[in-house]
């Protein structure tokens, strides 16, 4: 396989310190340079290594996207076969990780189980500087760790992977024990392609910070999983389902949405920190959800249209549109995934981007160390303990 491509420049110290004050969240601050992906929020466009996400979502499988993110170009047939062979070879769970997974209570959140499994695997499998081989090994195992835990918590034994199945199909097989339908594989593949990377989001930034300290790839990915778990980042897709169940019917939707917005309740699946129009990933997932469940789509789409109109009416100028979470919930439910597996499945995709960013960071590294504006007191008089 080809040699990974790295970003050819690291942001200068002058640039990183030029904006010393910020309203919070580092919004608008450029913290790194990258050649991996570009998010254009004003026009709703997402680019992977120069390719528009709409073209990739409709025509590629996840393994092609992984190759693109890691090596800088889409694979030819032989390169794709080589990567698929490597994935198949890496589809094993070491004994220490299986022991760890078996020890977890059935009530453990799958994101916590995934984080724990990656940490346990890294403790015995990772040494030295992050490499492309380590990235392959990690990405190949994410579905195995999740599926093994899910089966164990249901009182079932984990299954052996089928080397003839692709990444998405093998994941579904390991969860269910049945060869998935072509329709389900296509839907999950599209989801994995769409979520593989997304600029300098919170979890990717976290992974790059850890990598910048010259820590190992497992530590970087464990930290990224922790960031993705948060409901303000990746932890909300299943809550879209909860919201839709609470709304109940399209006839009740208008009143429900108006009351929710008027009382400050968050509409799950609407609004994005970057996109000021419809998330391009949501556009692709919308079509996949329509094909997967035509009857359910009428309700889901109806709620979406009402919500966008009401948000514009009650919050004019806020530009709150559908984000990736809204149709992620519908699509993942249609392929048979339980709600608490939605965010971990996000991680099954995003580990490709995380690892690509880790490799890019270390190839031209500078410790990421921003400043903070201190707002506390400075002239307090010290008193010994017995005088306080």
From TrEMBL:
<dbReference type="GO" id="GO:0036440">
    <property type="term" value="F:citrate synthase activity"/>
</dbReference>
<dbReference type="InterPro" id="IPR036969">
    <property type="entry name" value="Citrate_synthase_sf"/>
</dbReference>
<dbReference type="InterPro" id="IPR019810">
    <property type="entry name" value="Citrate_synthase_AS"/>
</dbReference>
<dbReference type="GO" id="GO:0005975">
    <property type="term" value="P:carbohydrate metabolic process"/>
</dbReference>
<feature type="region of interest" description="Disordered">
    <location>
        <begin position="1"/>
        <end position="20"/>
    </location>
</feature>
<dbReference type="InterPro" id="IPR024176">
    <property type="entry name" value="Citrate_synthase_bac-typ"/>
</dbReference>
<dbReference type="InterPro" id="IPR016143">
    <property type="entry name" value="Citrate_synth-like_sm_a-sub"/>
</dbReference>
<feature type="active site">
    <location>
        <position position="272"/>
    </location>
</feature>
<dbReference type="Pfam" id="PF00285">
    <property type="entry name" value="Citrate_synt"/>
</dbReference>
<dbReference type="GO" id="GO:0005829">
    <property type="term" value="C:cytosol"/>
</dbReference>
<dbReference type="GO" id="GO:0006099">
    <property type="term" value="P:tricarboxylic acid cycle"/>
</dbReference>
<dbReference type="InterPro" id="IPR016142">
    <property type="entry name" value="Citrate_synth-like_lrg_a-sub"/>
</dbReference>
<comment type="pathway">
    <text>Carbohydrate metabolism; tricarboxylic acid cycle.</text>
</comment>
<keyword id="KW-0808">Transferase</keyword>
<protein>
    <recommendedName>
        <fullName>Citrate synthase</fullName>
    </recommendedName>
</protein>
<dbReference type="InterPro" id="IPR002020">
    <property type="entry name" value="Citrate_synthase"/>
</dbReference>
<feature type="active site">
    <location>
        <position position="325"/>
    </location>
</feature>
<comment type="similarity">
    <text>Belongs to the citrate synthase family.</text>
</comment>
């Amino acid at each position: 396989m080809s040699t990974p491509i790295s970003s050819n420049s690291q942001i200068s110290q002058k640039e990183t310190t030029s904006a010393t004050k910020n309203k919070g969240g580092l919004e608008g601050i450029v913290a790194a340079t990258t050649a991996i992906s570009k998010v254009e929020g004003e026009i709703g466009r997402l680019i992977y290594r120069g390719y528009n996400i709409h073209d990739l979502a409709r025509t590629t499988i996840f393994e092609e996207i992984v190759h693109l993110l890691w090596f800088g170009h889409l694979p030819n047939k032989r390169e794709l076969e080589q990567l698929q062979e490597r994935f198949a070879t890496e589809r094993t769970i070491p004994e220490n990780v299986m022991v760890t997974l078996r020890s977890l209570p059935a009530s453990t959140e799958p994101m916590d189980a995934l984080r724990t499994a990656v940490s346990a695997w890294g403790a015995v499998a990772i040494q030295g500087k992050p490499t492309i081989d380590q990235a392959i090994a990690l990405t190949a195992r994410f579905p195995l760790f999740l599926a093994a835990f899910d089966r164990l918590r249901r009182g079932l034994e984990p299954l052996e992977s089928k080397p003839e199945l692709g990444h998405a199909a093998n994941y579904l097989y390991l969860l269910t024990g049945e060869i998935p339908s072509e329709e389900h594989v296509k839907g999950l593949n599209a989801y994995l392609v769409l979520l593989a990377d997304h600029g300098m989001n919170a979890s990717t930034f976290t992974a790059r910070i850890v990598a910048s300290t010259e820590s190992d790839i497992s530590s970087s990915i464990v930290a990224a999983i922790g960031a993705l778990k948060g409901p303000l980042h990746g932890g909300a897709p299943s809550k879209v389902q909860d919201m839709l169940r609470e709304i109940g019917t399209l006839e009740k939707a208008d009143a429900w949405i108006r009351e929710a917005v008027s009382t400050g309740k968050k509409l799950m699946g609407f609004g994005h920190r970057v996109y000021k129009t419809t998330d391009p990933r949501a556009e692709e997932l919308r079509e996949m959800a329509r094909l997967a469940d035509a009857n359910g789509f009428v309700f889901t789409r109806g709620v979406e249209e009402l919500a966008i109109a009401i948000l514009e009416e009650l919050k004019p100028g806020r530009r709150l549109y559908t984000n990736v979470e809204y149709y992620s919930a519908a699509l993942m439910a249609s392929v048979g995934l339980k709600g608490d597996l939605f965010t971990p499945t996000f991680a099954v995709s995003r580990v490709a981007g995380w690892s690509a960013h880790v490799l890019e960071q270390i190839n031209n590294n500078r410790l990421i160390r921003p400043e903070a504006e201190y707002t506390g007191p400075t002239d307090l008089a010290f008193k010994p303990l017995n005088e306080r």
